[in-house]
Amino acid sequence: MEAATAPAVAAFHVTKKFPGVIANEDVTFDVRVGEVHALLGENGAGKTTLSNILTGLYRPDSGWLEVLGEKITFQSPRDAIAAGIGMVHQHFRLIPTFTVAENIALGSAHDPIGGRFDIAAIEERIVALSESFDLPVDPRAKIWQLSVGEQQRVEILKVLYRDARVLIMDEPTAVLTPVESEALASTMQSMARNGRSVVFISHKLGEVASIADRVTVLRHGRSVETVTENDVNALASLMVGRSVESVKQTSESISLFVADSAPVVLEISDLCANGDRGLKALNGVSLDVRAGEIVGVAGVAGNGQRELVEILAGLRRSSSGSVQVDGESLENGSTRHPIRLGVSYVPQDRMGTGLAPDLSIAENMALKKYRRPPVSRPPFLRQSVIDSEARELMAQFDVRAPSETTPTRRLSGGNVQKVLLAREMSGDPKVLVIASPSQGLDVGAVAIVHQLLLDAAGKGVGILLVSEDLDEVLSLSHRIAVMYEGRILDTVNRVDADVQRIGLLMGGQMEESA
Amino acid sequence: MKRFGFRLEPRSDLPKWLPWAVPVGSFLVALLVGAIVLSITGQNPFSVYARIVDRAFLSDGAFSGTLVSATPLLFTGLCAAVAFRIGFFNIGGEGQFVMGAIFGSGIALKLGADVPGVLAVASMVVFGAIGGGLWGLIPGILKTRFRTNEIITSLMLNYIAAVIATYLIFDSQSFWRELSGSGAVFPKGKVLPVIAWWPKLDFGSVIVPFGFLLGMVIAGWLYVLQRKTRFGFEMRIVGGAPTTARYAGIKPNRVIIAVAALSGALAGIGGATDVGNFRHILDPKGLQQSGFGYAGIVVAALARLNPVAVVFVAILLGGITNAGYALRGPDFPAGLVGVLQGLILFCTLGGEVLARYRIKRSSQSSAVETAMEPA
């Protein structure tokens, strides 16, 4: 088992507690020099906490770290950088108006404070680094001019520039298109060949199996096992600790077609709208959803999905076009009208938009019905009704919490989503708009949420499912609409859905031949 | 290389008793620090504290005096508590209080001596609320329409209100100013007709100003409003999660404006009380010196924004103020009472941090060097 040289970095019996949760418990793992090592785990398994410990952001409550066989304590991220450990964050920390070189030089060990800022020398070094690691980027380009994939390369170069020998990458493919992900995978492998070590955090089994030399699986904050396994199913059962009903099975449980006779409950016609920065975000979107139908909207984030969903919820005004719900047109920019017409909405930002985190489960469940009897008896609210209805919904949707008075901020991601679905389904909606329903949830919770969506469709609710997770869209939807730059490039039936083609559409490529 | 330091870490568990124990503990710490200050100034802290308790609560008529001091604090405390709850930081209780006093005294003078007392008092309450409410509305509207910071606008409006009150008495021949008798020489306000003097209710050993009773009733009403009503529900959502409020079909701006007006109205009633129950005259200098609006923020903070707790905190701080009047003398500078009040606030706010975080001593080690020069 022991490698010839000491591990590039290793953690021994690391435990870290936070209010109410044990994020890491007795975690032990090591990263060899020159390997790609994946940290695999569901959300909440403790991957991010562990990487924050490795990069000096947190200190372990107990246990220790070793770098090249030497025991070490990080007082701050600075110490970790000095020890050769660098982090590539999932959310980039770049200054948009600065150039690539300026961003890379910023705050690095080579930053000549008070001295001459030799940008030419810095650029030269960046070019050398980007050539040796195959990370093409123009050091003089401004960050805002770069694509997401290029920005990530800058983040990686930033870490390499500081002579990091261990690169920790937190869900690096989450923001990338499939093509960009493949390029990243080869970059990681070339870094490993050059004697660096890559710690690659992910919950995507496929890429872990194909990229990593070894995999350490984390489950409920514990390190379960380090394996050289590249069998996806074996990794999945290690990660979840039980056999997962595979997505395939869920998908087979729904019928492939919705009858043409089913009424159209949501009709979006030629919808246009501006985004937050005043640029056109929606450019003539037309789409309809029938009762009992799940229409999936696929696409890379930022192609207008958020704006579309917000218009349906009344949180954003459209500039032209119309939305009809069951034949009635939706008032532009009213948040109450969709609620009245039976449009339920489960937002992507569940805690920030869907719930009031400090209020109880019961109060959150009453959020959309407190204006109407029986909850309301003006000017008062009937707390007993709020509580008893909440208890019923909690039982029906299997919300696990100490009681209905528990603040929602204490709930796990899966239970938060159940609270939201319980509330949004309880008013007998005609349309359910749901954005990224399984984002941040563990595999078990995802299965439950998917089942709830299928049940809702079975009851005749028309569902608009917006998700960046293509597997999710493919497994649940009757039809799939691919959004790109504010337009729906194409809508395909699931029976003839071709992943390759959808992937191309997501990248804006209309294929030339069928 | 050794490094020493402390860091704050979020507490992993919040015991039930902690939210209550911390303010009490902070109060005791404030007394302890206060004792050190008193010792340095040559006072015997024990005897000073004993005298404060005596003059605030125990001695003959002391509690009645304390209630007089507590009444304005009660209103300005409620003003701050209601607004802060929804994250609207109304620092303008001071100005709203003054506007309430101007409006309240104005209507009393207008109605004159020939109306029933009930009508006079009731109109003063209503007009005080209108005056303060309008003044509170301004930062509310500015915030919701133009996204201005309410802390700055409400604070600036305090100075404007003070200038208006000064103008009415000192720099003009306004309706509020006494122009006959000594008022012709020394500017001062007209004395309200006696019929508009608010009653003081005699409960044997304690005399309770009507304004204090009114404040208690309002505090109870606010509690019910916040906890039991639809509007209170909307307030809680807007306060805790504005985006979610919008999502749920609530218009956060409307709630903010309503609360801004309500908050101002509470301080305004306080101003009317001050004129009706105690001064019986619009007295810009007196209002300015007492700084009830700012003290109200202290009261609200100590009461953890709970309207019912505001009543008790107002009595506590009113007691200290009242005792301060009694103790003031050649051997006891008036500022010492202010120092004590400041210490109480400081310790309580510090205690709030400790309630949520725990202090951890950073483990010092020389491992950093090993890190810099790995084998």
Could you please describe the fold and organization of this structure?
- The complex is a heterodimer of chains A (514) and B (375).
- Chain A has 514 residues and is of the alpha/beta class.
- Chain A has helices spanning 47-54, 77-82, 100-105, 119-132, 148-161, 178-193, 205-211, 232-240, 247-252, 305-313, 336-341, 350-354, 361-365, 383-396, 413-426, 443-458, 470-476, 499-506, and strands spanning 9-18, 21-31, 36-40, 62-67, 70-72, 85-88, 166-170, 197-202, 214-219, 222-227, 264-274, 280-290, 294-298, 320-325, 328-329, 343-346, 376-377, 380-381, 431-435, 462-466, 479-484, 487-493.
- In chain A, the strands form 5 sheets. Chain A has a 6-stranded mixed sheet, sandwiched between helices. Chain A has a 6-stranded mixed sheet with strand order 16-19-20-13-21-22, with helices on both faces.
- In chain A, helix 15 runs parallel beside helix 16 (443-458).
- The radius of gyration of chain A is 25 Å and the shape is globular.
- The model of chain A is unreliable at 242-252 (pLDDT under 50).
- Chain B has 375 residues and is mainly α.
- Chain B has a domain at 67-309: Orthogonal Bundle (ABC transporter involved in vitamin B12 uptake, BtuC), CATH 1.10.3470.
- Chain B is built from 15 helices and 4 strands.
- In chain B, the strands form 2 sheets. Chain B has a two-stranded antiparallel sheet with strand order 1-4.
- Chain A binds chain B through residues 6, 17-20, 59, 67-75, 79-80, 82-84, 313-315, 335-336, 339, 345, 347, 349, 352-359, 363, 366-368, 370-371, 376, 378-381, 383, and chain B through 3, 10-14, 228-231, 233, 236-237, 240-241, 243-250, 362-363, 365, 367-368, 370-372, 374-375.
- Poorly predicted spans of chain A: 242-252
- Cα-atom Rg of chain B, whole angstroms? 24 Å
Shape type of chain B? globular
Overall 3D shape of chain A: globular
- CA gyration radius of chain A, whole angstroms: 25 Å
DSSP summary, beta strand count of chain A: 22
> Terminal Cα separation of chain A, in Å?
51 Å
